[in-house]
Design a protein that fits this description.
The longest helix has 28 residues. Helix content is 50%, strand content 10%. It contains nine helices and five strands. By secondary structure, it is an alpha+beta fold. Helix 3 crosses helix 7, helix 4 runs antiparallel to helix 5 and helix 4 packs antiparallel against helix 8.
Length: 240
């Protein structure tokens, strides 16, 4: 192929790419951003309002995981693995490990301010007491282990390849009327949990996500500081 022919071919490819880009932008502009924004602003950490009596079908979990793994990963490594636990005995075993860490951990916070109302602490204690009743647990895992003393770069890259998928999963659950909460207390006994579920030591468990339908769906945006107060431009604490 001559130079001019190659140039014409490259120009044609560029034009097709530009048309596709414009079409994608048009589709994004006409999508229902209101619904997307609603899911983003009302996906809460759900503990007390998990419906402990309603089963969660496996195909619903799989649908949400299909969306979850569209998240990016470092180097496109796609090292996620998901252990879904709906067996009652295994859920009870994991809940016992969770409680073993949660009771002293949450109790320490309770002793700091006895008698003080603390809705987050109340709901955390409720989850500890009822975790075994939640119909499904999802354990997000990532292949490999961090070194014993990882650098900030290593830690950020490693967990940055699993945590976006977890949040995708939680958003997908919310869009289908299910609730979840990101928990990590069982990781104090990660090895014991791994033995219970057959997870090898070469795999890192990142969290335990209780999954259930919610009691009601009327979740609202949480109170947050104005973003203008916590967004800095070009220098630390430079808000304008």
């Amino acid at each position: 192929m001559g130079i001019r022919a190659r140039m014409r071919a490259a120009t044609a490819v560029a034009r097709r790419s530009d048309r596709r880009h414009r079409r994608d932008l048009d589709l994004m502009a006409t999508s229902d951003n209101t619904s997307i924004d609603h899911v983003l602003t009302t996906t809460r950490a759900v503990r007390k309002r998990l419906d402990l009596s309603r089963p969660v079908p496996r195909d619903v979990v799989l649908d949400c995981l299909r969306l979850a793994i569209q998240a990016p990963t470092g180097g496109n490594s796609q090292g996620w693995r998901w252990v879904v636990v709906d067996d009652a005995e295994k859920r009870a075993g994991l809940a016992a490990l969770y409680r073993k860490r949660a009771e002293p951990y949450l109790g320490g916070y309770r002793t700091l301010a006895p008698g003080t109302a603390n809705p987050v602490l109340d709901s955390s204690e409720y989850l500890t007491e009822h975790l075994h009743e939640v119909p499904v647990f999802v354990i997000p895992c990532i292949l490999g282990r961090l070194p014993e003393t990882p650098t900030n770069e290593e830690g950020a890259g490693f967990y940055g390849s699993i945590l976006p998928t977890v949040w995708n999963f939680q958003l997908a659950l919310r869009s289908r009327g299910l609730g979840s909460v990101f928990t990590t207390l069982h990781l104090a006994y990660e090895r014991e949990a791994g033995e219970l579920l057959g997870i090898p030591d070469t795999v890192t468990q990142a969290a335990l996500i209780p999954v259930a339908y919610t009691v009601g769906t009327d979740f609202k945006p949480a109170a947050r500081r104005p973003v203008e107060q916590i967004t800095y431009w070009n220098d630390w604490k430079q808000t304008s």
